[in-house]
Design goal:
This protein is of the alpha/beta class. It folds into 2 domains: 241 residues, Glycogen Phosphorylase B (Rossmann fold); 176 residues, 3-Layer(aba) Sandwich (Rossmann fold), CATH 3.40.50.2000. It is built from 19 helices and 12 strands. GO terms for molecular function: glycosyltransferase activity.
Length: 439
């Protein structure tokens, strides 16, 4: 119980003083003053206690997304202040192993929901104080379960843009078992989504789910896929085809929907003996993967490396020939997997399950080989194709690598969003410097 009490401690809000010290700076770079340079100004919000920008967070994907969006805004001359609740959380809440702890039982999930509600009101008071002390052109919030911090912006007639990465009421109650009540989570989600001025969804299937489940008008939903900070992966060398084996790599949180168990079964069926797997990550599916390696006798072909830090991801990708992204159809097709862009930015071909995002990238000429999610035979055939065509796929990945930094960077994503917001009359149109590859 002591661990539970510590894990559910509500992060304290900072003392209200001047705006420059009121809020957090998640990317470690001094934020420009609000309104500096004649550009736009934004308040970035993330109310989830388990999502933040610290390097010890268990949720590396959301971390990359938060940092990427804020960097993109600043590169587009938007002055950004931020409130990132997860950066204040105890490691028991947000650090390695926290996801498993939060799913340990119904009592824990109920206590977590109570903590979320308390946190919601405390953080909203903090946000209200910030908005009363400084002017912002818009508020941008990453939606978190039971959180609606941007309501304080609506009260003050400041445009509220709400980023939706998943229908968390469904994900948290069914796939992650992180909430005690689907009904209450869905009511809170509907209340937040209904009040925002603009909803930003990371994929078209997710936008359709938002419209169909919550009856949100389609014209209030804008689709903006995830992006990548390509400069992080510039040091990754091109893939070499000199080695005897094909090394397939995965980096990220270990969940059942990532289909890593399917990958191991496909490797077990491989008769060439030339396919090896390296998996870097931690999460609730880690223990089962360890057991599966034992059961299938794959110790000489599969490495489970555990969690890597964000700084260690480029070095890991430098050690593999192909990146794996096997999201399961039943839960992952509405995602916009960050790892796919990161693999491509590192010059790695990608073996991925077939869904809207991967089909689109393959259609644009990027180096993706697609298999039907859940089909071990099709995945095995994909592994064989990657082995047989490793030279041509490596060349394709190298040839299209620069395009990732130019066409799919976070700055490019933010620029598109700002133009859309200006067209809708949510912000004024501003002159911005052109982007170059890698920004």
């Amino acid at each position: 119980m002591a661990v539970l009490r510590t894990a559910l401690t509500i992060p304290a809000a900072p003392t209200l003083r001047a705006p420059s010290v009121l809020v957090d700076d998640p990317v470690g770079v001094p934020a420009p003053g609000v309104g500096d340079g004649g550009g736009l100004s934004s308040l970035y919000l993330s109310g989830g206690a388990r999502v933040g920008t610290r390097t010890d967070t268990e949720s590396l994907g959301p971390r990359s997304h938060i940092v990427g969006v804020i960097d993109g805004l600043r590169q587009e001359q938007v002055a950004v202040r931020s409130v990132i609740v997860g950066d204040r959380s105890s490691p028991l809440v947000a650090g390695p192993g926290s996801d498993r702890r939060m799913q340990s039982g119904r009592v824990t999930r109920l206590a977590a929901d109570v903590a979320r509600q308390s946190l919601r009101w405390r953080t909203r008071r903090e946000v209200a104080g910030i908005l009363d002390r400084a002017d912002f052109d818009f508020v941008y919030e990453r939606y978190s379960l039971y959180q609606d911090l941007g309501v304080e912006a609506v009260k003050r007639q400041v445009p509220w843009v709400l980023e939706v990465n998943a229908l968390l009421s469904v994900e948290a109650s069914r796939h992650r078992r992180a909430t005690s009540s689907l009904h209450l989570a869905r009511r809170a989600e509907l209340a937040a989504l209904s009040r925002a001025d603009l909803l930003v969804c990371v994929s078209e299937p997710l936008a359709e789910m938002v419209v169909n489940v919550h009856k949100i008008p389609r014209d209030r939903v804008y689709v903006l896929p995830n992006g990548v900070s390509a400069e992080r992966f510039e040091r990754c060398a091109p893939v070499s085809d000199a080695g005897p084996d094909l090394v397939v790599g995965f980096v990220g949180a270990l969940y059942a929907w990532q289909e890593l168990d399917l990958l191991l079964h496909a490797v077990r069926r491989d008769t060439t003996g030339r396919i090896r797997v390296r998996i870097a990550g931690g999460g609730v599916a880690g223990a089962r993967l360890t057991e599966l390696v034992d059961e299938l006798g794959l110790h000489d072909r599969v490495e489970l490396l555990g969690r890597v830090t964000p700084e260690g991801v480029p070095a890991f990708l430098d050690s593999v020939d192909v990146g794996f992204a096997g999201h399961r159809v039943s839960s992952g097709t509405y995602f916009s997997p960050l790892k796919v862009w990161e693999y491509l930015a590192a010059g790695r071909p990608v073996l991925a399950s077939r869904h809207a995002t991967t089909e689109s990238l393959a259609g644009e000429g990027f180096a993706l080989d697609l298999f039907e999610a859940g089909d071990v035979d099709d995945l095995g055939a994909g592994l064989q194709r990657c082995l047989d065509a490793r030279t041509s796929m490596a060349r394709q990945a190298a040839a299209t690598r620069a395009r990732i930094g130019l066409e799919h960077s976070w700055r490019a994503r933010v620029r598109t969003l700002l133009d859309e917001m200006a067209a809708r009359g949510l912000v004024r149109s501003t002159a911005r410097t052109p982007a170059v590859a890698g920004e």
